[in-house]
């Protein structure tokens, strides 16, 4: 900018064409310096999505808990969250490809089973079938946990209020990214009296 201004001052009076071109050069120089001084707009930075904690990892368990402790906490939390009717944390306990089966007290046959497949169907079951019953207590007990690598099967009795389903529930869990998630619940396995 200073160089263009000095050149314009050196021009002799009366030479209009040179003076005009000098002014244009000064204007171009001024615009160029203004553009180069302007800060470039920030570029969008792609931020990877935050990992959503799921299953046992969503429960704030202490570092180093055993697989059995994590699995038992998942099942106890499922009951507690049903009582509180907290659907989002409840659904975080479930694997994507999961299912719930009502065996209708006929464990030997599956012809009368009622099946909910996928998290959307399970969510619907909780909201439309389970929550309206307003259970005040759901406690799994007598847990028989069998762990086989990344999979676990748990047979449990469930206390829902005064009702006890002795060995009536079978839970299947899977470990994904170090977290235990519910993959399947089959309930009403006990024979009806």
Label this structure with key terms.
single chain; alpha+beta; 6 strands; 193 residues; Nuclear Transport Factor 2, Chain: A; globular; six-stranded mixed beta sheet; 34% helix; 30% strand
Structural notes for this entry:
The chain has 193 residues and is α+β, with helices and mostly antiparallel strands. The chain has a domain of 122 residues: Roll (Nuclear Transport Factor 2, Chain: A). The chain has a six-stranded mixed beta sheet with strand order 2-1-6-5-4-3. Helix 1 runs antiparallel to helix 2. It is globular. 17% of the residues are buried.
Furnish the topology, listing elements before pairings.
Blueprint: H1 2-10, H2 16-37, H3 67-84, H4 87-91, E1 94-102, E2 114-117, H5 119-130, E3 138-148, E4 151-160, E5 163-176, E6 179-187
Parallel strand pairs: 1-6
Antiparallel strand pairs: 1-2, 3-4, 4-5, 5-6
Helix pairs in contact: 1-2
Runs in which pLDDT lies below 50 for 5 or more consecutive residues are none
The CATH class of the domain at 66-187 turns out to be Alpha Beta
- Which H/E pattern describes the elements? HHHHEEHEEEE
What's the total count of β strands?
Answer: 6
Percent helix: 25-40%
Shape: globular
Give the amount of beta strand, in percent.
Answer: 25-35%
- Average the pLDDT over all residues and give the rounded result: 80
What is CATH's topology name of the domain at 66-187? Nuclear Transport Factor 2, Chain: A
SSE class: alpha+beta
Largest sheet: 6 strands, mixed
- From the alpha-carbon coordinates, what is the Rg to the nearest angstrom? 35 Å
Tell me which CATH architecture of the domain at 66-187 applies here.
Roll
Order of the strands making up the biggest sheet: 2-1-6-5-4-3
| Distinct helical segment count | 5
Distance between the termini: 98 Å
């Amino acid at each position: 900018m200073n160089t263009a201004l000095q050149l314009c001052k050196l021009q002799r009076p009366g030479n209009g064409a040179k003076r005009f071109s000098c002014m244009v050069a000064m204007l171009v120089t001024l615009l160029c310096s203004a553009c180069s001084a302007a800060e470039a707009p920030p570029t969008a930075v792609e931020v990877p999505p935050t990992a959503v904690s799921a299953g046992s990892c969503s429960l704030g368990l202490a570092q180093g808990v055993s697989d059995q402790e994590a699995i038992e906490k998942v099942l106890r939390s499922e009951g507690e969250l049903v009582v509180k009717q907290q659907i989002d944390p409840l659904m975080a306990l479930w694997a994507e490809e999961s299912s719930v089966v009502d065996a209708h007290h006929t464990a030997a046959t599956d012809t009368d089973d009622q099946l909910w497949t996928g998290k959307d169907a399970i969510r619907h079951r909780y909201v439309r079938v389970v929550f309206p019953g307003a259970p005040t207590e759901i406690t799994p007990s007598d847990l028989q946990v069998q762990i086989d690598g990344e999979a676990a099967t748990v047979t449990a009795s469930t206390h829902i209020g005064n009702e006890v389903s002795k060995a009536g529930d079978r839970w299947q869990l899977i470990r994904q990214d170090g977290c235990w998630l519910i993959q399947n619940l089959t309930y009403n396995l006990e024979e009806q009296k």
